[in-house]
């Protein structure tokens, strides 16, 4: 099981729980110190040292490099968790010329998923499909996503965040249309409001974390993820969940035409050719 954003918060909590249950976990993270801490925590939980790969998703070449290493090191991937995400502090474009929030939260995972697709195919069996799980958010509801130009600069970081989470659901919808027939089932979920490193630079979000009962722990945030990784009833292609139940997304996030258009523009944004990539 490959977990991006495995060095902190929801991803780390999921990785530890999976390791404790005996699963082989592979971690991706950006910060070397946090990644090493995650490696130690997963080893302590499961008794094995997990493979770990460092990549800053704000640099697509680092995603390509990590993807190539993963492909070289692992023959099969049964579950890919696209969970890395942030509320980007800066509104400057990345070195790839893309909105930083959209690149980290959607485009980098989109690229990585394509790079790993053959390994997901190899991880699917006749009785158990491979799974792609993406961490989205109820913030999709305020996404102002131009599906023709996902990487365009956004005016506000919260609007950028909403747009990226909308892209997560649209990615899941289109990936399900394309890949379910090959035994690869994509789903996504909203973890709830979770006390983690997320949003620590936002005064509004940090203040909200102080409200009693509003935020839950990272372990609680990982519960739906763990269920999606394992349960038969969670094998709902293109499904969007929260608290282990179907969850409603706005029409802008589930519209099949928007999902197709975003797929094409995302291929272009990350430098993939439609003719040479996964079906
Ligand atoms: N917390 C919430 O209330 C909430 C609500 C809805 C959805 N979510 C979503 O849940 C997911 C996990 O967030 P979290 O709450 O667990 O926050 P977190 O503790 O900040 O964890 C975020 C993870 O994403 C990784 N990440 C961030 N920027 C990255 C980059 N540029 N390149 C590579 N990896 C990067 C981090 O790596 P490093 O630690 O190594 O930097 C970390 O492992 C995100 O997709 C977030 O949008 C969170």
UniProtKB/TrEMBL annotation:
Keyword Repeat applies: no
GO molecular function: oxidoreductase activity
The keyword Oxidoreductase is annotated on this UniProt entry: yes
Keywords recorded for this protein, A-Z: Oxidoreductase
Domain of life (superkingdom): Bacteria
Coiled-coil residues: none
Matching Gene3D superfamilies: NAD(P)-binding Rossmann-like Domain
Name of the protein in question: Short-chain dehydrogenase/reductase SDR
Organism (species): Actinoplanes friuliensis DSM 7358
Lineage, top ranks: Bacteria, Bacillati, Actinomycetota, Actinomycetes, Micromonosporales
